[in-house]
Amino acid sequence: GNSVANGLANGASGGFSTAPNTQKEVQKTSFPFKDFITFDQPLKVDGLSKKLEEFNNAQKNDDTKLTDSEVKVVLGIAKGLVRLSDENFNILTKVDKWEKSQIFPLLDILRSKCLKPSFDNSEQIKEVLRLFESNLTPESQVNAMLAARGLSNILSNTKLQHVLSEFEAQEKIICTASALLPTSHQNLEISLVSVLYNISVLQIQKANLEGSVLLASSIATQVLPSLTQDEAIYRSLMALGNIIVTGPAEVKEFLQSMEIGGLVKEYTKKEEKIAS
Q1: pLDDT band at 165; cut points 50, 70, 90
Q2: 0.70 exceeded by the pTM?
């Protein structure tokens, strides 16, 4: 029954798209880990529809309220039946003008759309990135969690990840995500660490000295000490291990001076005991 529990745990917290889903299996492979973590939970369209209609009816202002036909467009996008033309994309993102507590359906739709992207052009992708970044805030844990999951999916996707390949873009995400920890919200914690882990995988493919130094030091000094979930700690150590094994020489020296290698080894031993 343990593998079922593991499967469920991974389902709730994002799984490795190509790797087997149990930690035991993952441990048999060695660094670097090159599989991205994706959050591919299917959209619960019925629930989202009810929420969208409820929130839309609560809008007092004509600027923010969607017409009936616009609501149909948003639901059509959620169901994958409506194309993301610029016109339809603009209708969907009108939801961003609602109260912060009402925009989670928009973030969840966009999280899902980043898995098999059907965005029409690069302007749309930049806008999606901006929406996710602007919701990595303490204001709403649910929004921050969905934004982190969306960013993980962008990083995992070869058609989208270029928007996060430069240092400036990575720096923004690493700093914003790290600043949200510690958190009492378990799935938010795991989602934030998954973004950092995915950045470490992207850095294997596209070396980024400044990015690696920042990522490693953030995880070692800020992220790891504030984690409570085993799965989050495990993913952080996988990210550090990736940087130790594949990072530029300067980064390795920096990590050795912080004695990070020992920390990773010590923890991996502990995890193996848990998994066996």
Answers
A1: very high
A2: yes
